[in-house]
Write a structure and sequence with these properties.
InterPro entries: Cit_transptr-like_dom, NhaD-like
Subcellular location: Membrane
Helix content: 55-70%
Pfam family, one: CitMHS
Number of strands: 0
Structural class: mainly alpha
Strand content: under 5%
Shape: globular
Keywords: Antiport, Ion transport, Membrane, Signal, Sodium, Sodium transport, Transmembrane, Transmembrane helix, Transport
Distance between the termini: 63 Å
Membrane topology: Multi-pass membrane protein
Radius of gyration: 25 Å
Number of helices: 23
Order of helices and strands: HHHHHHHHHHHHHHHHHHHHHHH
């Protein structure tokens, strides 16, 4: 037993000492050929395998990457302390953390607005309108796809996909093949729509915040993104039976759904928030997160107005015959209508997703600080052209989430033209549509449409989606030749 303990201590000591590392004065250590470096790479791979198996294991995706990020930076800190360069490791950690903080605060505001509009019933009213119209299956297929494509540039592609999927599930209940086809179409449309807007996807937001592409330059990707959606949608539409679903009592109820007071003012404030972020970045050259946090103030001030307007004073209600007043033995609070509270949308944020972003960014940042991203950049962009490498990374994003792929590219900081930055933004944005696990929207819809939309169901249409991927790249190479 004692021998096993001594062997374990020796292995840990060898791992943390980084004996093969070298460094110049004030330069980062190269840990790519050390046991500690290999261990950290293996740890990240294992953590990401757990992420990919989230639906099977029911283990939230943030947990393994949070653990991996913590262990990686502990190892880095220990090694740099041994080499009396702890300040350098601390500086690197703070730099990576700052990048995440800007991203998280930006997303926090955007998600809060989306949840606030949901709480005001704006999305339910949209669902009710679509159900009331009684669209045929083919019409529903195209309408949900087009709406996903045009909503996702403003809202995020995950929220858009969930909204459109809810409509399809309600209207086409028990039509398994059609629901699966619609889910594939919605994912392709939402990811494609998010690729030409800084607000449509995390990767586009990262590229914009890093200053690699100007705000209005992203719109050069509109036609390539539209091509990515239209090519597979046109092919799949030929396989749809053109019939109309029968309505039930619940459908009749959904038709009556409407939005609450303040829904459209909140939508207007969201657009004003986006404008604040864009103008702040373009005019005064401040990070976009400044405008977004200012926009949160817009919502909180308007929320104060709604809250004041919604408060009911029970003492001023003469209520002997009023349906509003409670019974004598009933808690009066249960009868008071809840006013708008901005902290309720905040509480409903996808915190697991935000923590997952933290884990991924810190893992990739740690591996980059160890030297692996430099090694990867030299291997990838040194041996192949930028175009081939960027198209290949788009294919990789179908298996690995596009966030670590894009963060790795940004950390490598290759010398790209605007056209090549647009290409990597396009490929990583739409490449994940080829598999159900390739994007957050796909993973979410596998949970929402469980039993209807599956990995194998998506895989059936992967060749068609891949055709759209190739067509979008060809469109970009054609119309944006001057930027390449």
């Amino acid at each position: 037993m004692q021998q096993k303990i001594l062997i374990f201590i020796a292995l840990i000591s060898c791992l943390l000492n980084g004996q093969n590392a070298y460094a110049n004065d004030g330069a980062a250590l190269d840990l790519t050929q050390t046991a500690a470096g290999w261990f950290c790479v293996g740890l990240f791979v294992i953590a990401y395998l757990f992420v990919m198996l989230e639906e099977k294991l029911h283990l939230r995706k943030s947990k393994p990457v949070l653990a991996a990020a913590g262990i990686i930076w502990v190892i880095i800190g220990w090694i740099y302390t041994q080499h009396e360069q702890s300040a350098l490791a601390e500086q690197a950690f703070r730099h990576t953390l700052l990048e995440f903080a800007e991203l998280m605060l930006f997303l926090l505001v955007a998600m809060t607005y989306i949840n606030a509009m949901d709480e005001r019933g704006l999305f339910n009213a949209l669902r009710g309108w679509m159900i009331k119209k009684g669209f045929s299956f083919r019409q529903l297929f195209w309408i949900t796809g087009l709406m996903a494509f045009f909503i996702s540039p403003i809202a995020d592609n995950l929220t858009t996909a969930l909204l459109m999927c809810a409509v399809v599930l309600k209207i086409a209940e028990n039509e398994k093949a059609f629901i699966n086809m619609c889910c594939v179409n919605i994912i392709v449309a939402a990811n494609a729509g998010g690729a030409f807007s800084p607000f449509g996807d995390i990767t586009t937001l990262m590229v914009w915040q890093a200053g690699k592409v100007d705000f209005f330059t992203f719109f050069h990707l509109f036609l390539p993104s539209l091509t990515n959606f239209l090519v597979p949608a046109a092919i799949m539409s030929f396989f749809i039976k053109n019939k109309v679903a029968q309505k039930d009592e619940e459908d009749l109820f959904l038709e009556t759904l409407t939005y609450k007071e303040g829904a459209f003012p909140i939508l207007f404030l969201f657009l004003a928030t986006i404008a604040s972020a864009v103008l702040g970045h373009v005019v005064i050259h401040m990070p976009p997160v400044l405008g977004m946090m200012l926009g949160l103030a817009y919502l909180k001030i308007y929320g104060f107005y709604l809250r004041k307007k919604g408060i009911v004073d029970l003492k001023k209600v003469e209520a002997v015959q009023s349906d509003f007043m409670p019974d004598k033995n009933e808690n009066p609070v249960t009868k008071v209508p809840l006013p708008f509270d901005v902290f309720q949308p905040l509480a409903r944020l996808e915190w697991d997703t935000l923590l997952f972003f933290y884990g991924v960014i810190m893992c990739v940042g740690g591996l980059g600080f160890m030297g692996y991203l430099t090694l990867m950049s030299e291997s990838l962009y040194g041996n192949f052209s930028a175009t081939v490498s960027n198209i290949s990374l788009g294919l990789v994003s179908a298996v690995i989430d596009n966030i670590p792929v894009m963060y790795a590219v940004l950390t490598m900081a290759p010398d790209f033209s605007q056209g090549q930055w647009l290409l990597i933004t396009l490929t990583t944005g739409v490449g994940g549509s080829m598999l159900s696990i390739g994007s957050a929207a796909g993973v979410a819809l596998m949970g929402q449409a469980r039993g209807y939309y599956t990995f194998l169901g998506h895989l059936k249409w992967t060749p068609v989606v891949a055709l759209g991927y190739c067509a979008s790249i060809a469109m970009h190479m054609w119309i944006n030749t001057g930027l390449l």
